[in-house]
Hints:
The protein is an alpha/beta fold. It has helices spanning 38-56, 72-93, 104-109, 114-124, 134-154, and strands at residues 4-8, 13-19, 24-31, 60-64, 98-100, 168-169. It has a single domain, classed as 2-Layer Sandwich (Nucleotidyltransferase, domain 5), CATH 3.30.420. The radius of gyration is 15 Å and the shape is globular.
Amino acid sequence: MKSILSLDVSSRRTGWCFTANYIDFVMGNISHNNKLKTDGKLESHYNQLAAIIKEFKPEIIILEDTFGSRNIKTLKTLAWFAGVTRLCCYVEAKIEPDLVANTSSKSYFGVRDKKLFFNRVTELADIDECTLNFTKGNDMVDSFAMLIYYIDAVLGYKSYKSDEYFIRICNL
């Protein structure tokens, strides 16, 4: 069993989720001061991610693959953050992240709508909306769902879709 860090990268708030035993999960967000210019946000992103990698020492890192966008400016910014993320993973842990398509976890859970997906995943983890709401928690929940998908569908380790699952979210 290898420890895994999952990253849902974005320029505003990057959700992350970590597990060492596939039962206990720690989640959080990497956020940036909106007053910073892009390069300052990229530096902040690197530094915060480096601290997470140093604290948890993952053996596997999974990263949501950058998806096409109709807005070229958004796509470029997302690509910059994804690039800095990949660089940080390599420099800090000598790990090249495994890419996961942004549709994989949604397909795994059988939900396409973002809000319904959030509700389904928080239900699985027994998180109520008073603890974690959609606006602040969406990126964390996406990284958690991607991690569940990866453990089950890619590694074939545990089926979280069965009634036999047991999950603890440690830091909410």
